[in-house]
Amino acid sequence: LSLDDPDGSLSSWNSRDATPCNWYGVTCAGDASNTTVTALDLSDTNIGGPFLANVLCCLPNLLSINLLNNSINQTLPLDISLCHNLRHLDLSQNLLTRLLPATLPLLPNLRYLDLTGNNFSGPIPDSFGTFQNLQVLSLVSNLLEGTIPPSLGNVSSLKMLNLSYNPFFPGRIPPELGNLTNLEVLWLTQCNLVGVIPTSLRNLNKLQDLDLALVINIRVQKT
């Protein structure tokens, strides 16, 4: 009831139904007598309104939320951390603003986080270096400031890190990123990078795709 639904994408959502398992975008697991909501996919449905963490996080077995390419607005609340079992969160191409919630790393099972194409501002929280199982982190095309935090080098599970197209303050590539030995994709395109390319990046033996394009002033460090 808190969402705008101009295209009627949620017309099958009827509160009189015994379960929501036949509603559009809802996936359940279990048999007919024991069903539980495990995923919500409302991507490309043109819905709008706030992200209702206090509602969605009441679903104890929710593993995946995909709201890509909608008009989800306001900000991502701190109580997103109550979605304890969440593994996949895609809120890309929405209208979210203000700071990235520092509580996101409290989701112990989160593996995929895509917040691309929003209007988040301020710095990347240092707490983002405490993700336990995150494999994909994409913060592309926001309004993020500060510099790339060295603490990201602690997320050894990362396979893809994409921070491209943010108006960061001029800063170096943290040498600590060389600790991400599972990294396959590293994109820092147009991130106001300066200084040297740290030799620690040669430790990224699984790296397949590296993009440091559109830098201000960067050079290769001699070994």
Could you give a quick summary of the protein structure above?
This is Leucine-rich repeat-containing N-terminal plant-type domain-containing protein. With 223 residues, the protein is mainly β.
Give your account of this protein's structure:
It is a single-pass type I membrane protein. It holds the Pfam family LRR_14. It is found in: Membrane. By secondary structure, this protein is an all-beta fold. The chain is built from one helix and 16 strands. A hairpin with a 6-residue loop joins strand 1 and strand 2.
List the uncertain runs. none
Number of helices: 1
Q: Give the amount of beta strand, in percent.
A: 15-25%
Give the class from helix and strand content and strand pairing. mainly beta
User: Over the alpha carbons, how many angstroms does the gyration radius reach?
Assistant: 19 Å
Strand order, sheet with most strands:
1-2-4-6-8-10-12-13-15
| Total number of beta strands | 16
Relative helix content: under 10%
Q: What distance separates the N and C termini? A: 60 Å
Order of helices and strands: EEEHEEEEEEEEEEEEE
Question: Secondary structure elements and their pairing?
Answer:
Blueprint: E1 26-29, E2 36-41, E3 48-50, H1 53-56, E4 64-66, E5 71-73, E6 88-90, E7 97-99, E8 112-114, E9 119-122, E10 136-138, E11 143-144, E12 160-162, E13 185-187, E14 194-197, E15 209-211, E16 217-220
Parallel strand pairs: 2-4, 3-5, 4-6, 6-8, 7-9, 8-10, 9-11, 10-12, 12-13, 13-15, 14-16
Antiparallel strand pairs: 1-2
